[in-house]
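Service request form, structural biology core

Requester: graduate student, group of Dr. S.
Request type: structure prediction, single chain
Budget code: on file
Notes: please return the result as structure tokens.

Sequence provided:
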Amino acid sequence: MAFFHGDQFGVEPVAKLIRIACPSALPCGFAWSSDCDRLQAGEFGGGAVVITADGIDWHSTTGILNHALSRAENPHDGLDGYVLAVRSPEGDIAYWNNTDGLGALSSATVFHGNEAAGVNPLPFEDAEWLALPAPLHG
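Core staff response, request fulfilled:
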């Protein structure tokens, strides 16, 4: 565990350094906070960074809060994405994966926003779009 602080600390350079210099530690991440010496709206917050071999994923506290509030206001709105489910004649369910076709839910392609509109579920007659549930809290 390491701690860094300072008036002009660069979160992005540290994330990039970890990704390049420490590939054996990936995936990893860290959280940061920011504040101000004056009480001003928008000057306090922070976020989190998830670093993988594929890239750096940024999350701000404001974005996390807005996403959670949207989910609370519209819990069945597909905010966390959709998967395409297909039921076989035997009653089994398979999920669409852009790479391999049909398979397990764990390998399903998750579609967000208008991405689903570009997917043609044919030749599957019983295809159905399912909204992913909100993550469990524990």
